[in-house]
Description:
By secondary structure, the protein is an alpha+beta fold. The protein folds into five domains: about 10-80 and about 260-300, Beta Complex (Endonuclease - Pi-scei, Chain A, domain 1), CATH 2.170.16.10; about 100-250, Homing endonucleases (Endonuclease I-creI, Roll), CATH 3.10.28.10; about 315-420, Dna-directed Rna Polymerase Ii 140kd Polypeptide, Chain: B, Domain 6 (Beta Barrel); about 435-485, Alpha-Beta Complex (DCoH-like), CATH 3.90.1800.10; about 490-540, RNA polymerase alpha subunit dimerisation domain (DCoH-like, Alpha-Beta Complex), CATH 3.90.1800. Helices cover about 25% and strands about 25% of the residues. The chain contains 13 helices and 25 strands. The chain has helices spanning about 100-110, 130-135, 155-160, 190-200, 220-230, 255-260, 335-340, 345-360, 385-395, 430-435, 465-475, 475-485, 530-540; strands at about 10-15, 20-25, 25-40, 45-50, 55-60, 65-70, 75-80, 115, 120-125, 140-145, 150, 205-210, 210-215, 235-240, 250-255, 265, 270-280, 285-290, 295-300, 400-405, 420, 490-495, 505, 515, 525-530. The strands form nine sheets. It has a four-stranded antiparallel β-sheet. It has a four-stranded antiparallel β-sheet with strand order 8-9-11-10. Helix 1 packs across helix 4, helix 4 (about 190-200) runs antiparallel to helix 5 and helix 11 (about 465-475) packs antiparallel against helix 12. About 25% of the residues are buried. Zinc ion binds next to loops.
Amino acid sequence: MSNLDIKHHRIAILTPDGSLQYTLADEMFVLNYQGEMYEVQTPSINLAVTPHHKLYVSVDGEPFDLTRAKDIEDSSIVRYKKAAVNNNSSYIFPCNGKDQYWCYFTALYIIYGHVNHETKRICLNTRDVRTTTILDKLNQKWTFTEKRGYVIDDIQTMNMFASSDMKDKNPHKIGKTNQFPNYVWSLSRSQAIFLLECIMAKCCLTTKIANQYELWTTNLQFRDNLQRLCLHAEKACDFTQTTLATNCWLLTIRSDETETEPIVSYDAMRQTTYEGKIWCLEVCTHIFYVRRDGKTCWTGNSSRHGQKGTCGMKFREEDLPFTKQGITPDIIMNPHAIPSRMTIGHLIECLASKEAVLSGNMSTSIPFSLNNRDYHRDEDGNSTVESIAESLRLLNYDPYGEEILYNPLTGRKMQAKIFIGPTFYQKLRHMVSDKCHARSHGKNEILTRQPVEGRARNGGLRFGEMERDAVLAHGAMDFLRDRLYHNSDPFKVPVCGTCRLYAIDRLNEDGSSTLLCQRCKNSQVKMIETPWCFKLLYSELYSMNIVMKHHV
Ligand SMILES: [Zn+2]
C-alpha cells in the first residue's frame, strides 16, 4: 500500500452486486499509529489491521458484510472473500466466432511471444506444431524459422499486442517476455477461465492436483498478472516465495468455494501491538482488493499408529494397481516401515477393518478386551488375528488380507499377493514444499564464519561428524577438504617459523605486503590455511594463557 499513487493507480473494488470493477481511490490516509493490531495468518489469508478497520467477512454464516476487526474477535467461524463476479461481456476478437483460438493464441503469446517494434512483427519462440494449427485457424500470415520460431507479419494483430504495457521494454529482446496484452482485462469470465487454462496447459512448470494448479515462476510481472487473471476468472490465487532460488514464486490457483471464500477460525486471529505508519484507503463502494505476503482477499475500508511418512510420488488413479473389483489403493506404503517400529496394530486395523467392511459388522478395537464380537474370538474367547482371519476365510477372502492385484500398465496379474485393506489415515501438515531446501552461497555466522543453519534463514545443509567419518572411510580427501574447508570457513593466517605463533601480514604503503613476526623480528613467516573455527579455538585458548604452536 505504501507504493500506491491514488492519482494514477486504479484499485480493484467490489460493487454491491459482488462484481469486480476498477476505480481511482477517493482518498488515502497515512497515519502514525501506536497500539493494537489484529493479525490473521492462515495459508490463504494474511492481514494486519487496526481494531476499527472494517473487514469484508461473513460471520457465523451471516451474509458478507463490513465488520470491525475487533467485533469479529470471538466469532467462531469467519469467512473471507477472495473472488469476485466478472461481469464483462465477451471481448470481441478480430475474427468472429474464433474466440477459443484467440484465447489460445493469447496464451501462446504470453508464454512464448514478444513484439518486435522495429520489424513490426510478433515472434513466437516455440517449435510446438500445434501452434501452426492455431495460426492457420486465425488466418495469420506467419513464417517459421528454426531459430526464432513463428514470426507473424500482421500489423493489426501486432497493434493489438503492442498496446500492452511492454512498450518501454527493450524491443530487441529475443524470446519470451511473459507480457499480458491489455485486452486480457476486458475478457469475460468464460474467456478468462479459458485463457487461464491455456496458460496452464502450455506452461511447463505447472502441476495439477484435483481442483488446484501449482505453477512456478521467477517473473515478477507474470506472477502479478497471473494473480490478476485469476481474479478475472473468479478463482483464488495465492503465491509464496520459495527458497529453491532467489525470486522464485510458487503460485497456487484454486477454484472451489472453500478456497475462494476460505473459513478462518477465531484462533487464527492474533492481537499484536504495533508502532509505525499505517495506510488507510477510501473507495466508493468501501470494499477493495488487498494482498499481503502473496495472499489476496477483499477487505473493507480500513495414521493413528504413528506411521507418518513422506509422500514419495503421486500417481493418477488409472496408473495404480487394482483388485478384481477395480479397487485402487489410496496409499501404497513401504513394508519396511513396519518391523522396526513394531506397529502391529496398524496391520491388525487393516485386517479387522476389511473384515468389518465385508461383513457389515461393527468392530471394536479396545486392546486387552475379550468382549469383542463372536467372530473376533477364538475358542478361548480371545480376539486374535487368527479369529479375524477365520472370519475372512468364511467370507471367501484371503484370511490374511492379501489379494491379487493387476498391473495398471499391462493389465496382467502381479506375481506377488499384496496386503490391502481399509485403514484410517490422517494428514499431517508437513508438506514437501515447506521442507525442500538447498543453497549454493549465502550467509555465514559472524563468530565461526561457517554457513548459518536452518531453512528459514536460507542456511547451508549440515555436513556433520558422521558425514565426515563416512567420507573419510571412502578416502575422498579432496571432497572432504572442499566441504569442510573451502565451502565452510576458509582462512589464511601467517605463522612465524621461529616462535610458531601467529604473525602479521603488514600492508605497505605501495600496496604490497610483508609477512612479519613482531616478537622475533624475522621474516621466516609462512602463510598457512586453516579453518576460521580453528583460529577461533586458538584465540580462545590464548585468552586463557594456553598457547598452541604450529609446526611450519
Ligand atoms: Zn616469531
